[in-house]
Design goal:
329 residues, alpha/beta, Isopropylmalate Dehydrogenase, 12 strands, 45% helix, acyltransferase, Phospholipid_synth_PlsX-like
Length: 329
């Protein structure tokens, strides 16, 4: 299994990507890790390079503020584009990047290519839940608009992912909506509901956003516009919550004492809702495995992304999605 990592993408590139790749290569000797990027910059952070880690030198980098489509088309030697080309040409089985999200989506579409029968790939991050199991949410930003058929395909891909990568035997799939009744929602959700009922999934009906973190389902399906608003709302709420706690716990010596006592529990709570612990978000529906790390990912997040890619490859995730989508065609 060959996994390419865009070493130049992300807020802390290439240091964190290199350290994460080193840790992964040392732990899993059945994989080959390919670091894609400027070799001099990468080698500055390499110590005792294992035999299953190699470097593919590139000169260009896609920056965070680059216009995605123009950058992918013009920067042919950018680390992200080259990593995508390795997957396209079967020189790598998967790619991981913490770089420009729009550019990675464009790379997936224009370089890696879609699975036959998939109309639109979906970005599918894991959201934390109170029981620690998480919920796979898709689409959370790859496509702002969607049709009912797109949501049906998202549901199928998400269900297969939870089964193949997380070992959930019968993933519960919910449709994000403003109410639980079948007739609730806008035209999109009303049209999608019967399609999901007939799809080869365990569809449990509509799920309201306030129930998502309560682990009401294993997969939540929505269009990219609603999904991205939900994601940003959750991130904002979590940020405010921890900020308020910090303020309250530093007001007096009484509160500081209470904070010291509660610290272990609070740290566990924070860890449960930390993106670094939930790995990378797959861009489902492509001919190869493409994973998007958070822009602020550290070495541990990159290592978790490699672990995630390794499990997906072992279980032939892409092949399983292709077979289900094209079943009977």
């Amino acid at each position: 299994m060959r996994i390419a990592i865009d070493a130049m993408g992300g807020d802390h590139a290439p240091k964190e990507a290199v350290e994460g790749a080193l840790a992964a290569a040392r732990e899993w000797t059945d994989i080959e890790v390919i670091l894609v990027g400027n070799s001099a910059a990468i080698e500055a952070h390499l110590q005792n390079k294992p035999a299953n880690l190699t470097i593919r030198h590139t000169e260009e980098v896609i920056e965070a503020d680059d216009e995605p489509v123009k950058a992918v088309r013009r920067k042919k030697d950018a680390s992200m584009v080259v990593a995508g080309r390795l997957v396209k040409d079967k020189e790598a089985d998967a790619m991981i990047s913490a770089g420009n999200t729009g550019a990675l989506m464009t790379t997936g579409l224009l370089v890696v290519g879609r699975i036959s029968g998939i109309e639109r790939p979906a970005l599918a991050p894991m959201l934390p839940t109170i029981d620690g199991s998480g919920v796979l949410a898709l689409d959370l930003g790859a496509n702002m608009d969607a049709s009912a058929e797109h949501l049906r395909q998202y549901a199928i891909m998400g269900s297969i992912y939870r089964n193949k990568v997380h070992g959930v035997a019968k993933p519960r799939v919910g449709l994000l909506n403003v109410g639980t009744e079948a007739m609730k929602g806008n035209e999109l959700t009303k049209a999608a509901f019967p399609l999901l009922e007939e799809a080869p999934i365990h569809f449990i009906g509509n799920v309201e956003s306030r129930e998502v973190l309560r682990a009401e389902c294993d997969v939540i399906v929505c269009d990219g516009f609603a999904g991205n608003i939900m994601l940003k709302s959750l991130e904002g709420a979590a940020s405010v919550f921890f900020s308020v706690l910090k303020t309250e716990f530093t007001k007096s010596w009484y509160s500081k004492l209470a904070a010291a006592i509660l610290r272990p529990g609070l740290m566990n709570f924070r860890k449960k809702f930390d993106y670094k612990e939930h790995g990378a978000a797959p861009l489902l529906g492509l001919q190869g495995l493409v994973l998007k790390c958070h822009g602020s990912s550290d070495a541990n997040a990159f290592k978790n992304a490699v672990r995630q890619a390794r499990i997906a490859l072992q279980n032939d995730l892409v092949g399983a999605i292709s077979a289900e989508i094209n079943h009977g065609k």
